[in-house]
């Protein structure tokens, strides 16, 4: 039987090959076929997830709720010391010094990443801003969000902090961070679906010892993950509860 | 912060629903909500704190040891009307999510405003407790809530 693996579309493009190496590595460890399918849109991926196409998902925390509570997935591991944080940035030359300086009618550049967008909107609440009194401009990538700030097409932009930090020094020097979230308990995780449940102990064992050998270590490096940490069901449920408090 | 901030202290006796009474020192000084953070706590089904994150500990002014195992009412500010918390318990008792603006009392007597959400933690169909997540409220919402709570408190 061949299983299907997919990865949340918000990983940095530099690490695409890393996920292919990971897939090859995992097939060897488990001695079973796994097909990797990547998406560049959250919506398209979610449609296929709902159609129960996947058995193994490196998921965005926002999708974890649907996967665990509706589709019976189980989280097995998370990348160590990597949490999902959101940055709101502006053009370095703008007058905005704090979120509260943004006013109704503000043009906000964002992406379809549901976590980053949700956190960004929450951080705008302190300025009495929401979707009814802002102009939301959904862009295809964080680079396009940055371009919007540089060319004056938007007043503020939402970024995954990791993506913001990985942008070139030149681009970053033209932007200024108004606020950066510090939540720490919201993060991606690797989830296993019902059809693959019998492999859970083997997957966890393989992941948790991955950094102990040269082959595993180099795969981790190519994915920009230092090592995996175990995740149990209560940790997963807690994260889902927390995210639930953030969405209406 | 409002212009009536005086930093004057007063002693207030607070009586909780369970019969506990304590005398708290209240200072009219607001501590601003930290940007970008979420204040998180969890309780058992009765409201006894079982988990507090670092932002919670920092803002409340208590140590983790002082918080775990005590009722969440340790943060109850005397300016908060009882009816607000009745609304909270009624809502979560029905198994649904509650949102509201809360003025919380710190250990040092100062206060901080939050926009709070409380949700029931259901595991295998059973209520295990509640999670509360707070975020930064806007100035206008704080002012609205201040006025509303004053009216409600006067009616109690
Ligand atoms: C998860 C959870 C979080 C709560 N957070 C607060 C809080 O931050 N501040 C507060 O005054 N009461 C909070 N409460 C409500 C208290 O348990 C209590 O009902 C309230 O302080 C009123 O106290 P009293 O019922 O003794 O008058 C919370 C309750 C729950 C279940």
Question: Which descriptors apply to this entry?
Answer:
heterodimer; A: 248 residues; alpha/beta; D-Maltodextrin-Binding Protein, domain 2; 2 domains; six-stranded mixed beta sheet; five-stranded mixed beta sheet; 10 helices; 39% helix; 22% strand; B: 156 residues; alpha+beta; Beta-Lactamase; five-stranded antiparallel beta sheet; two-stranded antiparallel sheet; 4 helices; 7 strands; 35% strand; binds flavin mononucleotide
Question: What's the gist of this structure?
Answer:
With 248 residues, chain A is of the alpha/beta class.
What this model shows, in words?
The complex is a heterodimer of chains A (248) and B (156). With 248 residues, chain A is an alpha/beta fold. Chain A has 2 domains: 144 residues, 3-Layer(aba) Sandwich (D-Maltodextrin-Binding Protein, domain 2), CATH 3.40.190.10; 95 residues, Periplasmic binding protein-like II (D-Maltodextrin-Binding Protein, domain 2), CATH 3.40.190. Chain A contains 10 helices and 11 strands. A 6-stranded mixed β-sheet of chain A has the order 2-1-3-10-4-11, sandwiched between helices. In chain A, strands 7-6-8-5-9 form a 5-stranded mixed β-sheet. In chain A, strand 6, helix 4 and strand 7 form a beta-alpha-beta unit. In chain A, helix 1 runs antiparallel to helix 9 and helix 3 packs across helix 10. The radius of gyration of chain A is 19 Å and the shape is globular. Chain B has a single domain, classed as PAS domain (Beta-Lactamase, 2-Layer Sandwich). Chain B is globular. The model of chain B has no long low-confidence stretch (mean pLDDT 92). Classes of the chains: A alpha/beta (248), B alpha+beta (156). Chains A and B meet through helix 10 of A and strand 6, strand 7 and helix 4 of B. The site of flavin mononucleotide has 18 residues of chain B, from helix 3, strand 5 and strand 7. Chain A: This is Phosphonate transport system substrate-binding protein. Chain A: It comes from Amphritea japonica ATCC BAA-1530. Chain B: This is Aerotaxis receptor. Chain B: Keywords: Receptor.
């Amino acid at each position: 039987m061949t299983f299907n693996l997919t990865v949340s579309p918000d990983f940095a493009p530099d690490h695409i090959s890393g996920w292919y190496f990971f897939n090859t590595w995992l097939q060897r460890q488990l001695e079973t076929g796994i097909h990797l399918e990547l998406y560049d849109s959250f919506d398209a991926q979610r449609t296929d997830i709902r159609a129960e196409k996947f058995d193994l998902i490196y998921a965005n925390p926002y999708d974890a709720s649907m996967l665990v509570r509706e589709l019976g997935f189980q989280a097995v591991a998370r990348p160590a010391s990597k949490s999902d944080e959101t940055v709101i940035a502006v053009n370095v030359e703008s007058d905005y010094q704090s979120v509260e300086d943004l006013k109704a009618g503000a043009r906000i550049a964002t992406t379809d990443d549901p976590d980053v967008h949700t956190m960004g909107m929450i951080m705008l609440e302190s300025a009495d801003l929401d979707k009814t009194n802002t102009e939301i401009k959904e862009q295809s990538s964080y680079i396009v969000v940055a371009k919007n700030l540089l060319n004056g097409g938007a007043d503020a932009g939402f970024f995954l902090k990791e993506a913001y930090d990985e942008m070139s020094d030149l681009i970053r020097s033209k932007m200024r961070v108004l606020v950066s979230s510090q939540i720490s308990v919201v993060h991606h995780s690797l989830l296993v679906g019902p059809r693959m449940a019998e492999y859970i102990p083997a997957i966890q064992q393989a992941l948790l010892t991955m950094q102990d050998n040269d082959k595993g270590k180099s795969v981790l490096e190519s994915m920009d993950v230092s090592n995996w940490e175990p995740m149990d069901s209560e940790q997963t449920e807690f994260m889902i509860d927390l995210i639930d408090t953030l969405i209406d | 912060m409002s212009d009536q901030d005086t930093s004057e202290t007063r002693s207030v006796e607070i009586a909780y629903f369970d019969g506990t009474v304590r005398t708290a020192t209240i200072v009219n000084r607001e501590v601003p909500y930290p940007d970008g953070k979420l204040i998180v706590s969890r309780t058992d089904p009765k409201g006894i704190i079982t988990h507090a994150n670092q932002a919670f500990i920092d803002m409340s002014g208590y140590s983790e040891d002082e918080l775990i195992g005590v009722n969440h009412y340790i943060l109850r500010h005397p300016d908060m009307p009882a009816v607000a918390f009745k609304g909270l318990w009624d809502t979560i008792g029905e198994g649904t999510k509650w949102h509201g603006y809360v003025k919380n009392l710190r250990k040092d007597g100062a206060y901080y405003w939050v926009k709070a959400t409380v949700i029931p933690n259901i595991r295998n169909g059973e209520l295990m407790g509640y999670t509360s997540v707070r975020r930064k409220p806007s100035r206008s919402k704080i002012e609205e809530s201040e006025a509303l709570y004053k009216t409600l408190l006067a009616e109690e």
